[in-house]
UniProtKB/TrEMBL annotation:
Record-linked InterPro entries: Aldolase_II/adducin_N, Aldolase_II/adducin_N_sf, MethylthioRu-1-P_deHdtase_MtnB, Salvage_MtnB_euk
Pathway of action: Amino-acid biosynthesis; L-methionine biosynthesis via salvage pathway; L-methionine from S-methyl-5-thio-alpha-D-ribose 1-phosphate: step 2/6
Record keywords, A-Z: Amino-acid biosynthesis, Cytoplasm, Lyase, Metal-binding, Methionine biosynthesis, Zinc
Binding-site positions, substrate: C95
Gene: MDE1
Enzyme Commission code(s) on record: 4.2.1.109
Catalytic site: E147 (proton donor/acceptor)
PANTHER family noted in UniProt: METHYLTHIORIBULOSE-1-PHOSPHATE DEHYDRATASE (PTHR10640)
Entry protein name: Methylthioribulose-1-phosphate dehydratase
Similarity remark: Belongs to the aldolase class II family. MtnB subfamily.
Source superkingdom: Eukaryota
Catalytic activity: 5-(methylsulfanyl)-D-ribulose 1-phosphate = 5-methylsulfanyl-2,3-dioxopentyl phosphate + H2O
Cofactor: Zn(2+)
Transmembrane segments: none
Amino acid sequence: MAALHTSLAETNDHLVVSDDPEHPANHICTLCRNFYSQGWVGGTGGGTSIKRGPHIFIAPSGVQKELMQPHNIFVLEHANRSYIRKPLDLKPSACTPLFLAAFDRGAGCCIHTHSQWAVLVTLLVEQEAHTNGQDSKGKCFEIEKIEQIKGIPQGRTKQGMLGYFDKLVVPIIENTAHEEDLTQSLEEAMEKYPDAYAILVRRHGVYVWGDNVQKAKTQAESFDYLFRLAVEMKRLGLPWVA
């Protein structure tokens, strides 16, 4: 059986071999190095996944993001959720079921980071709720009248981007001991906020997705800019919402 598994893995190596820098196996490695340089995915945390046709390419668990290579990438058949390329010396990402939740809703790329700004924003929302005698569970991060909000689309079923006067709402879900255990609450938040392109995980990080790789990346950058700005605004006593 081990020999059979090895043979299958070798047969499907062609799925991650390409000279095209935008091939998902190459692109994931480039993105992971980029995100590492920004401090989003240190210590092997976080992950990235890209859908191309029927296949989903996923960064593995336990590999330092700045050192990731195409041969480390897992490939999943979207329709039946089965791996068609599985590096034998690596573990699949624990983020996989959460990535699938985004792909099931039409995403082309999903990014998970452990950005400190994302974590801090969830703590500030929690602190404000407790200060007001409220339960922080179910609270969202909200901000308005900031130019960078224009970098976020209006929603899956809507045309165009949010405007300067629009309020950006990002749901926050509670963290769990194991990554995969976040799946249900992530899916519930996706259903409750169908126009959202990001979901914060309290004390943990953020999931961001987009219609394609380029959109997911630029949206992740826009969200992180807004999270960082929000932390600085709070420090200066400036409100997020008028």
